[in-house]
């Protein structure tokens, strides 16, 4: 469905925090593959009839850049993902030019070991990087998407790394998406800035696997009047996420969204916990088990068990592209503030919207109608100018 951009169609930036990670690499490689007609847009909701005529930017109009604290080039990262079965074997060589172009737009992140810059200095640097990206490529706008590894919840007043990047996005005039459970714009110190900038933002924590299934099964039990007694889960995963989530504080931040889905769809929190185990040998692949104990008619006790095996990068990448396009179009349409209508994509969505996937999809369909409304006239100058 994504049309080729006309000569007059503006280009749109996608600035990835964690730009050399598995998800970001899959996003860049996947977008290039679809633009070249090498693969269909499987998993992209914005490429379905739901968003036909909604004015979303074409995939071929997207320009990628980002921040990261690691220095492995995207082409090398893509080769590693192909060796692990995450990307098709021949894809890294087929889109090598696009990967290299995106890699040239990645700037050093922070705070890195030995970094002498304080929070103010880091925000200023990140903001300057974004403004430079916008101006050099003559972009109509750029959307900042956080796909970095999960960080522990902050315990003091100091802004965590995710919030530094979020603050820079706001100062540069860029819509923001938090695809992770990290703090990002949720920090109290950023609330006034988020309101004053008049930008759309969405989050948090992309719903790609176990929680996606929970957002379907929870409403099923409620609607069939079946009483859930206990719901326990286990995740086995490797890669960067597995290493990051081996930190109990980071795992707790991740599990909060999973628990919220059950609380919101069952109107109670059943017994049971979610456990996350780092298994480096699994690489970018994940296995998630759920064990659900429930009561049926006359108190008959029953069990439902589910197994979800998948690759998080391949599940997340189409959603990241969806959200970048949706936020870009929302910005063009003059929308601002938290976009609760995008709860379909998140474990812990902004606002007080529904938690059941079916209801979230209906809300997303209404959002598509909003985007079909005529866009306001473009302001003069590039994003971030005069701000």
TrEMBL record:
<protein>
    <submittedName>
        <fullName>Myo-inositol-1-phosphate synthase</fullName>
    </submittedName>
</protein>
<dbReference type="GO" id="GO:0006021">
    <property type="term" value="P:inositol biosynthetic process"/>
</dbReference>
<dbReference type="GO" id="GO:0008654">
    <property type="term" value="P:phospholipid biosynthetic process"/>
</dbReference>
<comment type="similarity">
    <text>Belongs to the myo-inositol 1-phosphate synthase family.</text>
</comment>
<dbReference type="InterPro" id="IPR036291">
    <property type="entry name" value="NAD(P)-bd_dom_sf"/>
</dbReference>
<dbReference type="Pfam" id="PF01658">
    <property type="entry name" value="Inos-1-P_synth"/>
</dbReference>
<dbReference type="GO" id="GO:0004512">
    <property type="term" value="F:inositol-3-phosphate synthase activity"/>
</dbReference>
<dbReference type="InterPro" id="IPR013021">
    <property type="entry name" value="Myo-inos-1-P_Synthase_GAPDH"/>
</dbReference>
<feature type="domain" description="Myo-inositol-1-phosphate synthase GAPDH-like">
    <location>
        <begin position="209"/>
        <end position="313"/>
    </location>
</feature>
<dbReference type="Pfam" id="PF07994">
    <property type="entry name" value="NAD_binding_5"/>
</dbReference>
<dbReference type="InterPro" id="IPR002587">
    <property type="entry name" value="Myo-inos-1-P_Synthase"/>
</dbReference>
